[in-house]
Specification:
Blueprint lengths: L1 H33 L10 H5 L19 E3 L46 E6 L5 H14 L7 E6 L5 H10 L4 E5 L13 H13 L8 H12 L12 E4 L5 E2 L7 H7 L4 E3 L2 E3 L8 H11 L10 H4 L10 E3 L4 E4 H4 L2 H13 L1 H4 L4 H12 L5 E3 L5 E3 L2 E3 L4 H6 L18 H8 L13
Parallel strand pairs: 2-3, 2-5, 3-4, 7-11
Antiparallel strand pairs: 1-4, 5-10, 6-12, 8-9, 12-13
Helix pairs in contact: 3-4, 6-13, 8-11
The structure holds guanosine-5'-diphosphate (GDP) and magnesium ion.
Length: 438
């Protein structure tokens, strides 16, 4: 009896031991599977590899501004130039499941060749975060994932943690965040506040788009005269402006910054159109005053023919749409451009009317640059509500893996000025343009 129950106890102990071993084995293999789940590796390059925003101080400047912040992609080395590494024995190719695994970045590949001293730049509010995220994702997928250019974000208020976290996780280059100083986003002393308010009330009644908005006017004045001289922007020679909710429809196979530099271009566009007359009734009078006071800044061989149909007497309202721009910052910082902006600013039309930065930049590009210094990027396909630039020519669209509908292309329609740009420069229009005129 006693021997029998001892045997049963031995059986029970053995069964316990067996179950314990089974539990240990299954539990440790569960943990190794667990490691592959995204939630356990803190994805978000911002979190895992960024230095803290306050690691990088502001750049001092005679124009002055609040300290800016930068987020630098940290410890993970950038992939070497060239195409992604190929493994002859595929069994040896690492399967990179987490950002810290070997080979994670090789999937992106990096374009060979030099880099320009260039940055993307976006003016945005914290509430724009998801719209700018969509834009960044498209710019990265179609171009920047292979070039890793930096991105500067500017705001009249401090950027919040969500904005910084989301945008820095999407940009493949370094991200920098700058707060615009009050004097670049407020009424200058010479503006009569009462007069400006009456204009806004009148424009609201006439239902002029953004006619009653103060912040839109600060935005237009800032983009016209100050974005290029923010401390963070002083570090760069070239910029590409990106707004929230834009789309890029085709692959960008080469570096537009390098194209601009090597072809001596200073300003570029993808869409052009006529400005709402109600927003700029006296802009051309101010421009004529500037031309009279500063004849030395008006270059020979300029694009007056794009801006005026009667040799400069009247403005035809053609302008390049400035929500897309690739341009040269040294030009905007030049005495010629700054004199132009300051002369216009003194006349007060940013507040007594509603001058947009698009006609201001365009008129400057048209008069202060030689016409060969302007460039139309046919191969950068772009959308900003409500207009699309979709390259003319099926071969171009297929080669660039475009996903825009050619019927939406605005270039050759009646309200576009791009046809005029071609005529003024003596460029031949691309094959098939006649079929896209309406
Ligand atoms: N920080 C900041 N950015 C602004 C403000 N208003 C407009 N923006 C930015 O200025 C640019 C133009 O504004 P948007 O609303 O797109 O004007 P639209 O394209 O002319 O209709 C965008 O990049 C906006 O994010 C503002 O009050 N504060
Ligand atoms: Mg916009």
């Amino acid at each position: 009896m006693a021997a029998g129950s001892a045997r049963i106890v031995r059986y029970i102990l053995f069964a316990f031991f067996f179950l314990a071993v089974l539990y240990f084995v299954s539990n440790s293999s569960y943990e190794s599977v667990q490691q592959l789940k995204p939630s356990s590796f803190g994805v978000g390059k911002g979190e895992s590899t960024s230095t803290k925003p306050d690691d990088v101080g502001g750049v001092s400047s005679s124009w002055g501004s609040k300290p800016d912040e930068s987020i630098t992609k940290g410890t993970a080395p950038k992939p070497a130039a060239g195409t992604p590494k190929q493994y002859e024995d595929l069994a040896e190719a690492p399967m990179a499941l987490t950002p810290s695994d070997q080979g994670w970045d090789e999937l992106l590949g990096t374009a060979p060749g030099p880099r320009m001293n260039a940055t993307f730049v976006s003016l945005a509010r914290n509430s724009d975060v998801w719209e700018i995220a969509r834009s960044i994702r498209q710019v990265e997928d179609r171009f920047n994932r292979r070039y890793n250019y930096d991105w500067v974000f500017l705001n009249d208020k401090p950027f919040d943690a969500t904005f910084k976290k989301v945008t820095s996780s999407l940009v493949s280059g370094k991200t920098h965040y700058g707060e615009i100083p009050h004097e670049h986003w407020s009424f200058p002393d010479h503006i009569d506040q009462d007069k400006a308010r009456k204009v806004r009330e009148d424009m609201a009644q006439r239902k002029i788009i953004y006619g009653d908005s103060i912040s839109y006017r600060h935005m237009c004045r800032f983009e016209s005269g100050f974005f290029f001289r923010q401390p963070l922007m002083l570090n760069y020679e070239w910029y590409w402006r990106v707004e929230p909710s834009i789309e890029l429809f085709c692959d960008v196979h080469y570096d537009p910054f390098r194209f601009m530099a090597e072809n001596k271009k200073k300003y570029s566009f993808v869409l052009s159109l006529y400005e709402y007359v109600e927003t700029i009734p006296t802009l051309w009078d101010s421009v004529k005053k500037f031309m009279k006071n500063y004849p030395e800044h008006i270059v020979e061989g300029n694009s007056m023919g794009f801006l005026s149909d009667d040799g400069g007497e009247n403005y035809n309202h053609c302008h390049f749409w400035s929500n897309f721009e690739v341009g040269n910052l040294e030009w905007l910082r030049s005495k010629a451009y700054v004199d132009f902006f300051e002369s216009l600013d003194l006349d007060g039309g940013f507040f007594y009317e509603r001058w947009g930065d698009a006609p201001v930049h365009s008129i400057a590009a048209g008069l202060l640059l030689k016409k060969e210094e302007l460039h139309f990027f046919n191969d950068i396909a772009y959308y900003h509500v409500p207009f699309t630039h979709c390259p003319t020519g099926e071969k171009t669209r297929l080669d660039l893996r475009c996903h825009c509908n050619p019927k939406d292309n605005f270039d050759w329609k009646g309200y576009s000025c791009t046809s005029r740009f071609f005529d003024v420069n003596g460029y031949e229009k691309p094959e098939g343009y006649e079929n896209q005129q309406d």
